[in-house]
Design goal:
Number of domains of chain B: 1
Helix content of chain A: 25-40%
Number of helices of chain A: 10
Oligomer: heterodimer
Number of strands of chain A: 12
Strand order of the largest sheet of chain A: 6-7-8-3-9-10
CATH architecture of chain B: Orthogonal Bundle
Order of helices and strands of chain B: HHHHHHHHHHH
CATH topology of chain B: MetI-like fold
Structural class of chain A: alpha/beta
Number of helices of chain B: 11
Number of strands of chain B: 0
CATH class of chain B: Mainly Alpha
Distance between the termini of chain B: 33 Å
């Protein structure tokens, strides 16, 4: 569980992915002929991070926190409202069509649901060869089938199954096919949008271990999005906690998991089931009241204040920045950031 | 060793949806029965003299409405013409109208439907509303207006022009139905993850429309299309009956059925034979459509 610290990349390496102040607002419009915009859903609102080669950034947060929108922007499926995404130093939001197509070789995605991410009417061979057909100059057509079989072998599937259809595979095997497709163009960054949450628990570990193996083999950098905290800890070097479109806390896995300083992170971590009976009674859960506020109308000041037990006057007037707070060693967006997790606070 | 290698290379030779669909079709009796029937009817349409040497226009009024006999297998019609010869010769007009109208309708409707779903926004609104306007028009009324305008009884339009106009009218009034089916089928997968994955790989609009949306649209459109052949052949009959479609001396099943309909109690066989041919043709197309649809869905294999 905790060997992730040793897998860390050389800290001096140039980042492969630099994200600055990324914002995505979806306008809410009314009217069919004459559309008027009256507000916006602030799906992602000012996210920044760096990702170095071979590193894994875990992004955790509950449903509706903007994780998937972030992933879609990273791979260029959605254009950001503002902010920049630099892949190998090039801003992908400013690329022309040709450059955008070229960029796709560097950054690929693994999807959440292996049952919908593979076209049911295409053979596995066609699915894995599609990247080569789109980027025709990567590989001559005579070598594509062979490469597809190599890729199947890399992800632990039988290369002779190349002519089968997706429905002939199990969920875990399908996810491996999705991984093979994402690897085809030899990207340096993989965005994994909840890659194991649709799988059986017994299969999750296999797929996670495959991802770790591939990272070592190809030096991949991962943006690993999930809501399962233990899975994220297992694979991530650094973790960012997302709430209502923003990162509220960022740090190494130990910093977040053992010394969470933001109340939201503390509440999230207190919800992780504890498998060891010893000491289970002394642990207390922080139960948050209410729901996540609507991203179309987020609270003023700190976005978490409506559900926070520490909230005071300042929280509704001053928006806390994501900076290193006194008494802590990693950035946190809370006016009252605390040191080590002290679960069982005033409730 | 070489045997083993050969085995491996056959098991891994490139395969796709169409190869597998063809392999599947080859093993289905339904496919072969319907194909043979359709070929037979197409042969009948192309070379009617292979099946009968009797001239369908020779009339012997003294033998009007004679029952079927060894000499005239299907009997004689009201004007004393050989029904067998007329049914064989009638295949041409009926099959041309049925097939051509279905083909054009399916292509135009399918393409517009996929475009509407893929482009969305204004294109979708334009195509969908235009289709709804055309569907709002009563079919027979619309056809009468178009056909009397362009090929009225006095215009002296030749059979080829009339057939083209009938096909054009049927297409114009029916494509919205296909477009609707295609649009909804394409729309249901437009946001599927596998389409997103293709976009993330850099796939252009053509690849997404034809590689990912089209196969999903094919199944319902083929099924509908095979039923449409029947609808169009009988619609042609309706228009003939109303005097705005094909008209004598052109021979077609529709013309024959509408002519004989008035005497169904005196001479049942006059209606029965052309109708039987029509039904078997329609059945053959429906069976073929069904077999193709099943073969195109890997899960049904």
């Amino acid at each position: 569980m905790t060997q992730s610290g040793e897998r860390g990349p050389a800290p001096s390496a140039e980042p492969v992915l630099e994200v600055r102040d990324l914002v995505k607002h979806y306008p809410i419009t009314r009217g069919i002929l004459f559309q008027r915009s009256y507000g916006a859903v602030q799906a992602v609102d000012g996210v920044s991070f760096d990702l170095r080669p071979g590193e894994t950034l875990g992004v955790v947060g509950e449903s509706g926190s903007g994780k998937s929108t972030l992933a879609k922007m990273l791979i260029g499926l959605e254009g950001p409202t503002s902010g920049s995404i630099k892949v190998h130093g090039k801003d992908i939001t400013e690329l022309d069509r040709r450059g955008a197509k070229r960029m796709r070789r560097d950054i690929q995605m693994i999807f959440q649901d292996p049952y919908t991410s593979l076209n049911p009417r295409m053979t596995v061979g066609d699915i894995i060869c599609e990247p080569f057909e789109i980027h025709g100059d990567v590989l001559p057509s005579s070598e594509r089938r062979g490469r597809a079989q190599e890729l199947l072998e890399v992800v632990g599937l039988n290369p002779e199954h190349i002519n089968r259809y997706p429905h002939q595979f199990s969920g875990g095997q399908r996810q491996r096919i999705g991984i093979a497709r994402a690897l085809a163009l030899r990207p340096s960054i993989l965005v994994c949008d909840e890659p194991v949450s649709a799988l059986d628990v017994s299969i999750q570990a296999q797929v996670i271990n495959l991802l770790i193996k591939l990272q070592k083999e190809f030096g991949l950098a991962y943006v690993f999005i999930a809501h399962d905290l233990s899975v994220v800890r297992h694979i991530s070097d650094r973790v960012s906690v997302m709430y209502l479109g923003r990162f509220v806390e960022s740090g190494t896995d130990t910093e977040i998991y053992d010394h969470a300083s933001h109340p939201y992170s503390q509440a999230l971590l207190s919800a992780v089931p504890n498998p060891t009976p010893v000491g289970r009674e002394s642990r207390q859960r922080i139960l948050l009241s209410g729901d996540v506020p609507s991203p179309a109308d987020p609270p003023s000041g700190c976005r978490f204040r409506t559900r926070c037990w520490k909230a005071e006057e300042i929280c509704s007037t001053d928006d806390p920045e994501l900076t290193v707070r006194p008494g802590s060693d990693h950035p946190s967006a809370c006016h009252f950031a605390e040191g080590p997790l002290e679960v069982g606070g005033p409730r | 060793m070489s045997e083993q290698l050969a085995q491996v290379s056959t098991s891994t030779r490139p395969r796709g949806l169409w190869d597998d669909a063809w392999d599947e079709l080859k093993g289905r009796p339904i496919f072969w029965i319907s194909s043979v029937l359709i070929l037979l009817f197409i042969l009948m349409a192309a070379f009617p003299t292979l099946f009968t040497r009797v001239d369908p226009h020779v009339a012997d009024l003294s033998r009007s409405m004679e029952e079927p006999s060894a000499e005239h297998w299907f009997g004689l019609d009201r004007q004393g013409r050989d029904v067998f010869a007329r049914t064989i010769h009638g295949a041409r007009a009926s099959i041309i109208v049925g097939l051509a109208a279905t083909l054009v309708t399916t292509l135009i409707g399918g393409l517009l439907g996929i475009l509407a779903a893929y482009l969305g926004g204004w294109a979708d609104t334009l195509i969908s509303r235009l289709g709804e306007i055309l569907l709002g028009l009563p079919f027979v009324l619309g056809a009468i207006i178009i056909l009397t305008t362009f090929a009225g009884a006095q215009s002296g339009a030749g059979p080829a022009l009339v057939i083209t106009l009938v096909v054009g009218t049927l297409t114009l009034l029916s494509w919205p139905l296909v477009a609707r089916i295609a649009r909804s089928a394409a729309y249901s997968v437009k946001h599927a993850d596998y389409v997103q994955a293709a976009r993330a790989l850099g796939a252009g609009p053509f690849r997404i429309m034809f590689r990912h949306l089209l196969p999903n649209v094919m199944a319902p459109v083929i099924v509908y299309g095979s039923l449409m052949v029947a609808t169009f052949i009988s619609a042609e009959a309706t228009l003939s009956f109303l005097g705005v479609g094909l008209r004598p001396p052109v021979v077609s099943w529709g013309v024959a059925i509408s002519e004989a309909g008035d005497y169904i109690r005196q001479a049942f066989f006059l209606t029965a034979f052309p109708t039987a041919f029509l039904c078997v043709t329609v059945l053959a197309f429906v069976m073929l459509g069904d077999a193709i649809r099943d073969a195109l869905d890997p899960k049904l294999r």
